[in-house]
Amino acid sequence: MFTFGKSRRMTSAVSGAVVTAIAAAVLPASVAQARPSVPARYTQQHLDWQRCGKDSPLECATMAVPRDWHDAGAGPDLTIAVSRHRASDPAKRRGVLMMAAGGPGGSGLQRPQWLAGGSAAIDAAYDVVSFDQRGVGNSTRAVCESDAEFADFTAGDFRDRSPAAVQRVVDRSRAFVEHCKSRSGDLLPYLTTEQTVRDMDLFRSLLGEKKISYYGASYATMVGAYYATLFPQRVERAVLDSNIAFDGSWESFTTGQPMSFQRRFEQDFLPWLAQYDGVYHYGRTAAEAKATWERRRSALSAHPVKAGDTVIGPNQLDNGTLQAIYSAGKGFRPLAGALAALDHWDTADAQEKTLAAQVFGSYSGPGFFAEYFSVTCNDTRWDRNMDHWIERSAKDTVDLPLVGARELAFSAVCAAWPASKAPRVKVTGAGLPTTLMVNSVHDPATYYEAAVRAHRALRGSRLVTVTGDGDHGQFETGNACVDGIVTAYLVGGTAPERDLTCAAKPLPVPEGASPAAK
After folding, report:
1. pLDDT digits over 353-378, tens only?
2. Measured at the alpha carbon of residue 71, what is the angle toward residues 66 and 77, in degrees to the nearest 5?
3. How many helices (H) and strands (E) does the chain have?
4. Quick check: keyword Hydrolase in the entry (predicted)?
5. CA–CA separation, 446 vs 253, rounded Å?
6. Are 129 and 98 in contact (CB under 8 A)?
7. Which end of the chain is more exposed for a tag (fewer CB within 10 A), N or C?
8. CA-CA distance, 85 to 403, in Å (whole number)?
């Protein structure tokens, strides 16, 4: 999880001319509600920038936004925490590059430091700015459950399909919803992507910018696509990295993830693990490694193990595995080491047990999921027929178990979520400059098939396909081909004339390892 410095409250005023700028946003016909009007008390704010922390290169501020952009005078204001990394070369500065966080549920406040720090050209050319989305972090937060309550949500074995176990999962998901309603009820309906992008446009105007460029990865691709749809005249350049299927519904997108996580696990991680059987002793073929993993999972179902304060059971094995395979470079070796430790737990040393606790005990917490479920359940409609979800999840638990096993728990939350009035935003690309999209072919979370659909929906976009790779998030992760294309576009304005491909970067090699014979 990200950490961030303290943000400060805003004080005085800027020109009221931005009232017209925000109110003039062109809504597509698919957004049924009238164009929101913006009271001057929002548009005449001043961003009181202060250092985010003693040694931080970032500046932070806060801004007030309407609870509901479609009825800005109703209800108390929300606070949005924002951050800025100033361009390092004023002579080369070309504008503002805005970012948003993934998830939904991630914090965006520290991200400008990462993006600017990874590229000297971007650092020189842009003030890189970001924010904590409404509902998250230093902004007005949603509250659903305590750590202990959410630990109960993820406890047990989601593969258990006995009637009692299935009912427990459904009851536990409904309890999560009731906790959200009782602790954040008045806020919940307004935690949507469409409301967030209106916060972004207020931020743009308070920065004094007529246009922004944008970089977003994962869920932030949907944020960027929605912003570009509602405010196409405000967008100069946009990069969408590892793409949500923003052409459809959250339900249709998330029900595709059991396939993509299983594919990444079986076709990328397990063959890599088998290649280094001499290090990890998990099997000399992918099939042998999978069998060892399944035996370990069964053993943990019967007898969970404890590493410090972390109890590692079958769901924790799943959670740690699915999180690690987001990135081969960052995740494969720690996951393999933790799996090897579990396989000789009685003789594992303190360092190995600490690694296992880190890998299998670091699942996102209740703060993340308060926002995650708010957005995914609010943005688009969900099937509320629990018989449908019980039947579908039973099949996915058998066929695609890594993520399919938890499908019932997640879908049952949205099936019980309060009905949402969020307007549907249809992404078309109308009025936009060329948008650059990037996706790997085996991305587990934002799978390639969905990215292709999003690419087709966003007319005029260009898709960079990273072949032989499954990492989630491609820019500034060591792929020189991707970095060159994205930087040339953002800094020099050079958009590809057609879709392109980049080869994968090399997979990690354990220290001192020699691959097993195939």
Report:
1. 999 999 999 889 999 999 999 999 99
2. 20
3. 22, 12
4. yes
5. 9
6. yes
7. C
8. 37
Cβ atoms within 10 A of the Cβ of 418, count?
A: 13
- Max distance between CA atoms of the chain, in angstroms, equals 70
Give me the helix-helix angle, 193-206 and 219-230, nearest 10°. Answer: 70
Task: Find, among 155, 161, 153, the residue nearest to 390 by Cα.
Answer: 161
- Using CA atoms, how far apart are residues 396 and 114, in angstroms rounded to an integer? 37
Domain ranges of the chain: 141-183+255-379+383-416
CA 343, distance to chain mean position in Å, is 31
Residues 319-332, buried b or exposed e (16+ Cβ, 10 A)? bbbbbbbbbbeebb
Taking the C-alpha atoms of residue 177 and residue 410, their distance in angstroms, rounded to an integer, is 11
This prediction's pTM: 0.92
Question: What's the rounded mean pLDDT across residues 75-98?
Answer: 96
How far, CA to CA in Å, does 145 sit from each of 79, 138, 149, 458? 21, 18, 6, 37
Residue 486 Cα distances to 104, 438, 448, 469, 480, angstroms:
24, 9, 19, 18, 10
Give dist(CA 290, CA 482) in Å, integer.
Answer: 32
